[in-house]
Write a structure and sequence with these properties.
The protein is an alpha/beta fold. Helices cover 61% and strands 8% of the residues.
Length: 276
């Protein structure tokens, strides 16, 4: 059987069939010759059926191929999604030990700093300087953010006042990234008569957005170190702050009068300072 393939030759036969059939129908109608009309109709119907069946088969084949391609694409997408999900899980799983290690190193470094400043107090200055983070119990917390770039006399005075009432004097980090240089700078400021302590607390600077020193901060609660690595930022607790070259007493007076988040904390520390 001659199959319609869509070639030029097939289309030529198809058109010829239509012309022959159409001519016979036309002549049959003109001459009222029923046989010619019937034969012409059959020829046209056969041509249309021949081409139509082949076209339908071709369309079915194309549709089947398209469906197969779509199914293959969906399967590949699902496989890729599964692979990416597994890769993401591997990255997260491999990253967790490093995150825990960073938190552990941060805790160890803070412990070393505490011991280092303790050595300054015990070995160099006798018992005048102890644990920089220790202090009497107090409502809320007072932070005095300073830097070793400040004049030694001003730094010593602030540290003495703050430590006397349980405040915490904090610096952003090590001097030039060196623990030895930080200890040397502390020795130049503190003497056996200075009741002072300093803590390295970058979280205080980040949480309360300290950009100048000295900055005095009264807060309802201390900053809680975050556990997302050494460069993370803790959430700031309700607080008031003031910056400037003023005494601790003057800073507390202004915070007690103008503070909106922790004025009671400022009043408590101010009363304690005035009783000294």
């Amino acid at each position: 059987m001659f199959v319609f393939t869509g070639s030029v030759e097939c289309w030529a036969y198809f058109v010829a069939g239509l012309l022959v059939g159409g001519t016979l129908v036309f002549l049959g109608l003109r001459t009222r010759w029923v046989v010619a009309t019937a034969v012409g109709s059959l020829v046209m119907a056969a041509a249309i059926s021949w081409a139509g069946a082949a076209t339908a088969q071709s369309q079915d084949a194309v549709s089947s191929e398209v469906r197969r391609l779509i199914d293959d694409a969906n399967k590949r997408a699902e496989a890729l999604k599964s692979d990416l999900g597994g890769f993401a899980n591997q990255v997260e799983t491999r990253g967790n030990p490093y995150q825990a290690e960073a938190a552990r190193l941060a805790a160890e470094n803070q412990a070393r700093v505490r011991r280092g400043f303790g050595m300054i107090g015990g070995d160099v200055f006798g018992q005048a300087v102890g644990d920089p983070l220790a202090g009497p119990e107090q409502e809320g917390v007072l932070y005095v953010a300073v830097s070793f770039s400040m004049p030694p006399a001003a730094l010593k005075a602030l540290a003495t006042e703050a430590q006397t009432i349980g405040g915490k004097v904090v610096i952003r980090g090590l001097v030039n990234g060196s623990f030895e240089q930080t200890l040397a700078a502390a020795k130049q400021v503190f003497d056996p008569q200075s009741v002072a302590g300093i803590a390295i607390e970058p979280q205080v600077f980040r949480a309360y957005r300290v950009t100048r020193v000295p900055t005095f901060i009264v807060a309802t609660a201390p900053v809680t170190p975050c556990q997302d690595g050494v460069d993370c930022t803790s959430a700031a607790t309700p607080h008031d702050k003031i910056s400037g070259n003023i005494t601790t007493a003057e800073a507390l007076r202004q915070l007690a009068l103008d503070g909106s988040e922790a004025p009671n904390v400022a009043r408590s520390f101010l009363a304690d300072l005035q009783d000294r």
